[in-house]
Amino acid sequence: ILGEACSKLRESRDQLVDTTNDMEEELSKIFTNVFDEISNILHVDDLYKQIQESIQPKSDAIFNLTTIDKFVRIENVFESLKKLNK
Predict the structure, then answer these.
(1) Which of 16, 28, 39, 66 has the highest local Cβ count within 10 Å?
(2) DSSP3 helix / strand / coil % (the chain, rounded to 5)
(3) In which domain of life is the source organism classified (predicted)?
């Protein structure tokens, strides 16, 4: 009886592991799709280029630290989005 119970427990464990792996794979696909959609909606690359061009220092312009700080934060957000999107 004990051997049979152990065998059933092993089967249940294996099924649970398979189910968990399947769920993990599905969640990964869902997150990838969500970030693809976010990227498409926001046009991340185009938007990033526009922001970069619009605040790129001109030779006669002096940018204060606040502007540079904002740019760095925006850049970090886009880099994070790109990494999550992969």
Answers:
(1) 39
(2) 85, 0, 15
(3) Eukaryota
